[in-house]
Amino acid sequence: MDIAFLWSTLLAILPGVPTTLKLTAISVFIGLFLALALAAMRLSGHPLLVLPARAYVFVFRGTPLLVQIYLIYYGLAQFSVVRESLLWPFLREAYWCAILALTLNTGAYASEIVRGGLQSVPFGQIEAARAAGMSRLVMFRRIVAPLAIRQALPGYSNELILMIKSTSLASIITIFEISGLAYKVASETYRYIEVFFVAGLIYLSLNFAITRAIQALEHWLSPHLRPAPATPLLNELKAV
Amino acid sequence: MAWYDLLGFGPKGWGLQLLIAAGMTLAVATCGAIIGLMIGTLAAWAKLSRSLVARLCADAYTTILRGVPDLLVIYLFYFGGSLVLTYVSSHVLGTSGFVSVPAFAIGALALGVCNGGYQAEVLRGAYLALSKGEIEAARAVGMSPLLMFRRIIGPQVLRYAIPGLGNCWQLCLKESALVTVTGLVELLRQSNVAGRSTREPFLFFSAAAILYLVITIVSGQIFERAEKRAMRGMRRA
């Protein structure tokens, strides 16, 4: 094992970490709104809203992400309408094309997770909220959203990890995130195995950190599932 | 030229090439899924075994493969495999120069290694769904472990695992697009080539997307039928 080489490789690849995180964060953030909209369409019950949402989710979940990236990055540029539009400064850049593709993709996957979470809210809870005279907004904020988020969080953490992994495809359209830099270093040094090993370790630690963070969030969101701490005060109260 | 000429089977049409490439995608994804099933079975068996070493190895395998992008795994197998082959051929056979690995074999292998991690979890879950009484009964009638696997465990695990394995297959099919980086002429690479030479990338990538969807739909139907068939003796709530 050539520790010095592994170290220098690590230093060469680390500048890609912010790019990977930015790609993930931006597309996950926008994708979440898309997912909420799609889930709302699916649950609206109106065929004109349900069918497009179903078709969207089906197409984006049924085709490879790389095809979607190619379609947006190489495909859209062939139309002069796109090249002359106001969006061209964005669509010209591989970076924004990658973000667009990742956003559209995660929107489809996350909408199913959101839908599952929303559907898991017991009807009795909603009935009770209605009986108490809550407006729809208050009901969503106080009853539906907290329950749905707690239910959807484990699935969403899987999706986040998939997204971190998916950003590696951006390297194919010339973006130097972790995989892109690793590929560059590897093809310069011809030491593919060590370089990809280091890159894999970086991804593993990123995903480990995310899993842990979500687990902490889940723990914080479900105090009712934890055993009550045996505080001195509680014991005193029991004694009285 | 109109779009239907470009996608058609005429002299200037790319229809035949695209269909052949779709067949290649299907072939590499199928081989990958089969390799994945073998690795997944081994890993699931190791996860359920009493040996601590086997459990740790299998856990490490599934954790790593689920935390590392598949693209990296494909790069590692493709370039790393070529390095190893070059080393072996220059030291053992005495040849000089770079030896590259066959793209199809290495693509299928990499897909299998990626997919095996997911399949292992599915198979483990299916095994745990099996009722303990059946295994006890099989032991009680004196079946050898191999016979028990063939007659009792295998068929039932497969029955419970079909829906999960169907998901794994869809993953494998979509991941097979990444094998394009090895230069294998599968669906994505062929549509890339066609799109570049006709300057109609949108058309050809759309065609590729539709072909992927068709494969997804058809294989989804097959899995649904298989599930129905496998469950025909079961009472369902």
Q: What is the N-to-C order of secondary-structure elements of chain B (H for helix, E for strand)? A: HHHHHHHHH
Relative strand content of chain B? under 5%
What would CATH call the class of chain B?
Mainly Alpha
Q: What percent of residues of chain A adopt helix (DSSP H or I)?
A: over 70%
Fourth CATH level, the homologous superfamily of chain B: MetI-like
Q: What name does the CATH topology of chain B carry?
A: MetI-like fold
The overall strand count of chain A is 0
CA-CA gap between termini of chain B: 57 Å
Sketch the topology of chain A as an H/E string, one letter per element: HHHHHHHHHHHH
Q: Largest chain interface and its two residue counts? A: A-B, 41 and 38 residues
* Residues in helix, % of chain B: over 70%
In CATH, what is the class of chain A? Mainly Alpha
CATH architecture name of chain B:
Orthogonal Bundle
The total of helices of chain A stands at 12
Described by its quaternary structure, the protein is heterodimer
CATH architecture name of chain A: Orthogonal Bundle
- Overall shape of chain A: it is flat
What does this structure look like?
The complex is a heterodimer of chains A (240) and B (237). Chain A has 240 residues and is mainly α. Chain A is 80% helix and 0% strand. Chain A has a single domain, classed as MetI-like (MetI-like fold). Chain A has 12 helices and no strands. The longest helix of chain A has 31 residues, at 136-166. Chain A starts with a helix and ends with a helix. The mean pLDDT of chain A is 91. Chain B has a single domain (19-186), classed as MetI-like fold, CATH 1.10.3720.10. Chain B contains 9 helices and no strands. Chain B has helices spanning 3-7, 15-48, 52-67, 70-93, 103-129, 132-140, 145-175, 187-198, 201-230. Chain B starts with a helix and ends in a 7-residue tail after the last helix. The mean pLDDT of chain B is 91. Chains A and B meet through helix 3, helix 4, helix 9, helix 10 and helix 11 of A and helix 3, helix 4, helix 7, helix 8 and helix 9 of B. Chain B: Its main location: membrane.
